[in-house]
Automatic annotation (TrEMBL):
It is an enzyme of class 2 (transferase). This is Adenylyl-sulfate kinase. It holds the Pfam family APS_kinase. It comes from Salinimicrobium flavum. The gene is cysC. Pathway: Sulfur metabolism; hydrogen sulfide biosynthesis; sulfite from sulfate: step 2/3. The lineage of its organism: Bacteria, Pseudomonadati, Bacteroidota, Flavobacteriia, Flavobacteriales.
Length: 198
């Protein structure tokens, strides 16, 4: 804790909010290469939860990088800081009672370990969107892979910057083998079982 900062204790706790909402709150942390399917699956999952009247909020790469984290680049140092701030924000949303979904590359183990430490291990689910680089490159949703190959974009994850696949994710989605709908349904059932959503 920095010096001369004394936290004020507010009276409405996360538990109070969870009780009122009739469901717990936690963070669903997606990780995977650019174009792997993080945003697509995260968005569909959010819709699925919303339909069940679950309080949710999604934090997504490009949105956060054009606002809160504007100015951060794709160096190792900036990616770690990007992920640190996202984890802190996700924690706030979780404390506010939301099932919080994040969709960031979070390329290295240290990015995810840091997030898990900030959010708390019992509140953190790591979801690996496992799509091989060749497929992501073939999809090239934003045309960035082509630019990365030509050198126009530097430090691009999977091409000129590393991605460390999670060793033991809580949940894995292989998008070559499963449609978005199938993956979301399977994930929804997993969440139901683990957290007794409603
Ligand atoms: N150099 C480089 N490497 C990777 N990605 C790049 C880069 N430059 C821009 N982009 C776009 O930024 C999105 C990834 O941002 P993230 O905040 O998720 O990245 S990180 O967790 O800090 O590594 C990523 O979005 P997604 O495609 O949704 O993953 C890209 O569109
Ligand atoms: N099974 C699948 N799961 C997720 N996305 C898929 C799948 N099959 C094809 N796609 C397509 O792959 C692309 C993934 O893009 P996006 O969700 O933006 O990825 P990311 O957020 O990881 O960068 C989308 O165009 C999506 O329609």
């Amino acid at each position: 804790m920095p010096t001369n900062i004394i936290k004020h204790k507010y009276h409405i706790s996360r538990e109070d909010r969870n009780r009122q909402n009739k469901h717990g709150s936690f963070v669903i942390w997606f990780t995977g290469l650019s174009g792997s399917g993080k945003s697509t699956i995260a968005s569909k999952l959010e819709q699925r939860l919303f339909k069940e009247r679950v309080k949710t909020y999604a934090l997504d790469g490009d949105n956060i990088r054009s606002g809160l984290n504007k100015g951060l680049k794709f160096t190792r140092e900036d990616r770690l800081e990007n992920n640190r701030r996202i984890a802190e924000v996700a924690k706030l949303f979780m404390d506010a009672g939301m099932i919080t979904i994040t969709a960031f590359i979070s390329p290295l183990k240290e990015d995810r370990v840091q997030a898990k430490e900030i959010i708390g291990k019992d509140n953190f689910l790591e979801i690996y969107v496992n799509t091989p680089l060749e497929i992501c490159e073939e999809r090239d949703v934003k045309g960035f892979y082509q630019k990365a190959r030509s050198g126009e974009i530097k430090n691009f994850t999977g091409i000129s910057s590393p991605y460390e696949a999670p060793e033991a994710p809580d949940f894995e989605i292989k998008t070559e083998e499963e449609s978005v709908e199938e993956a979301v349904e399977r994930l929804y059932m997993f969440l139901q079982k683990k957290f007794k959503l409603l």
